[in-house]
Amino acid sequence: MKTSRLLLMALCVALTSNAQDQTNSQESKEVKVPDFVLAFSKTSGYRHKAIEKGVETLRELGRANNFIVLQTETSADFNSENLKNYKLIIFVNTTMDVLNEEEQKVFKKYINQGGNYMGIHAASDTEYDWPWYGKLVGAYFENHPRQQKAKIEVVDRTHPATLHLKEEWYHFDEWYNFMDLNPDVHVLMKLDESTYDGGTNGDNHPIAWYHEYDGGRAFYTGLGHTEASYDDPDFRQHVLGAIEWCLGRK
Predict the structure, then answer these.
(1) Parallel, antiparallel, or unpaired for β 148-154 and 168-173?
(2) Secondary structure of the chain: what % helix, strand, coil (to 5)?
(3) Which of 34, 64, 132, 236 is the most core-located residue (most Cβ within 10 A)?
(4) The dihedral of CA 23, 24, 28, 31: what is its sign?
(5) How confident is the model over 28-53, as pLDDT tens digits?
């Protein structure tokens, strides 16, 4: 089934649902058209078991917050005709080389024209030969120690992705060490390397950040390796807040 047909079907379902919700209302309310979000989960390297759980979580969040998430692992969907339908593209644990040169050009143009990007976990383990993408995501993955619990220092609690968190958050995940960190991003959360084994970024070990880049908004979170992460209410709210910021709602 073509992507355009999927989009049309999803929109019809959403509008019908919204209309039904308003049937018993005495006031006439404008039906708000939901935003479309593309979850891109292609892998050319390691494939995370949490991809399917992550995409389903995004869909659940969308159903409750008036956005529709469609998933693809087909890089050919990165064409101008298709991408213009989406307000946000989320790279969900993508790995290695996932877009060819023409698809890269289309994606860059999408961002240049005001499109938005969000990366989850292994999105930083992607497109190492494309420096523009590295600046967009904000860093590249270098390596990681074993999965373990660590203390996250929430250094900015004013952003929708961190507003619900306390100043310290203990979380179990796979903690990435990064290289080629973009100094222009606004860091929201850092790892306290004294609370776990294997950190190599030192006192400045960002793990979630955002910035406006080359025409669009970009957000990255290093969390999201484990399936259990997506059942954590704090992580779900972290992801939702990031999406709503990328969509320009907050």
Answers:
(1) antiparallel
(2) 35, 25, 40
(3) 34
(4) negative
(5) 456 789 999 999 999 999 999 999 99
